[in-house]
């Protein structure tokens, strides 16, 4: 890979800006100052440093976030804070984007990556990647609801949902449930309960495909996926 491309990918500016940086002599490859932007380097074996700091090159980044309420699942928003605003600069330089959307008032598992192929696979309707949510509901959830969700319910726009698995954790004036769906229509969980005349009062995603939310993560915190988590996620998409 060309040195200027590697440095640009790592967030050291545009190719033009990187050229300027090279001219200053700040870049060393295997300990020797280099000014040639076109020099080919092997990110696996060559040691590249900027102002004496060795850079660890990686093409893709995979982050698991425990999304808090009040932030938007987008890379940019004119009015509100986005999930990308919560990232440290060292992670943001990879330009990760959220894989799918959680509503502003939904909490929980959100994957962010710059790996477009993986994101596409996880979001493709054909792949039926299961997503599990924990929710509280404003009234009693019954076995009839379980059966209705298993068969599929008709949403306000006439769409009939695919079979979904509803587990009642606590049923009463306010109920607690887990719901697994294999699609991702706009506001799907809320609209499924609306079709039963019920309202979601709290919603949190607790898993996506083979990836459960790390409950150690506080709201707004995130971490990189482990190798195991990443390969489990990739295996499941095939
Ligand atoms: N379903 C919803 O209604 N909202 C979400 O954020 C995710 C699924």
TrEMBL record:
What the entry lists under PROSITE patterns is as follows: PSI_RSU (PS01149), S4 (PS50889)
Q: In Gene Ontology terms, what is one molecular function of this protein? A: rRNA pseudouridine synthase activity
Q: Which Pfam family is one of those matched by this entry?
A: S4
Which CDD domains would you find in this protein's record? PseudoU_synth_RsuA, S4
* Residues of the RNA-binding S4 domain: 1-59
List, alphabetically, the Gene3D superfamilies matched.
Alpha-L RNA-binding motif, Pseudouridine synthase I, catalytic domain, N-terminal subdomain, RNA-binding S4 domain
Work out whether the entry's keyword set contains Cell membrane: no
Biological processes annotated in GO:
enzyme-directed rRNA pseudouridine synthesis
SUPFAM superfamilies attached here? Alpha-L RNA-binding motif, Pseudouridine synthase
| Annotated InterPro entries | PsdUridine_s_RsuA/RluB/E/F_cat, PsdUridine_synth_cat_dom_sf, PsdUridine_synth_RsuA/RluA, PsdUridine_synth_RsuA/RluB/E/F, PsdUridine_synth_RsuA/RluB_CS, RsuA_PseudoU_synthase, S4_RNA-bd, S4_RNA-bd_sf
Keywords in alphabetical order, please. Answer: Isomerase, RNA-binding
The EC number of this protein is 5.4.99.-
Q: Which GO terms describe its cellular component?
A: cytosol
| PANTHER family associated with the record | PSEUDOURIDINE SYNTHASE, PSEUDOURIDINE SYNTHASE FAMILY PROTEIN-RELATED
Q: According to its UniProt record, which protein family does this protein belong to?
A: Belongs to the pseudouridine synthase RsuA family.
Name the chain's protein.
Answer: Pseudouridine synthase
Source species, please? Answer: Priestia veravalensis
């Amino acid at each position: 890979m060309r040195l200027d491309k590697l440095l640009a990918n790592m967030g050291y500016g545009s190719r033009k800006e990187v050229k300027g940086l090279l001219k200053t002599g700040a870049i060393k490859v295997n300990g020797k100052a280099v000014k040639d932007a076109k020099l080919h380097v092997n990110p696996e074996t060559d040691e590249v440093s900027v102002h004496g700091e060795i850079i660890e090159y990686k093409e893709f980044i995979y982050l698991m976030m425990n999304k808090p309420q009040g932030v938007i699942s987008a890379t940019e928003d004119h009015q509100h804070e986005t999930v990308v605003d919560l990232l440290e600069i060292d992670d943001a330089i990879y330009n990760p984007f959220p894989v799918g959307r959680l509503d502003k008032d939904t909490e929980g598992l959100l994957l962010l990556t710059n790996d477009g192929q993986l994101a596409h696979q996880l979001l493709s309707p054909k792949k039926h990647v299961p997503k599990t949510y924990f929710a509280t509901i404003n009234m009693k959830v019954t076995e009839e609801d379980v059966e209705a969700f298993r068969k599929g319910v008709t949403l306000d726009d006439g769409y009939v949902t695919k079979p979904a698995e509803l587990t009642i954790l606590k049923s009463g004036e306010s109920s607690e449930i887990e719901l697994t769906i294999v699609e991702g229509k706009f506001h799907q969980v809320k609209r499924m309960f609306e079709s039963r005349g019920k309202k979601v009062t709290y919603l949190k995603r607790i898993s996506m495909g083979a990836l459960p939310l790390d409950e150690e993560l506080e709201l707004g915190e995130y971490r990189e996926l482990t190798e195991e988590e990443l390969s489990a996620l990739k295996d499941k998409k095939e």
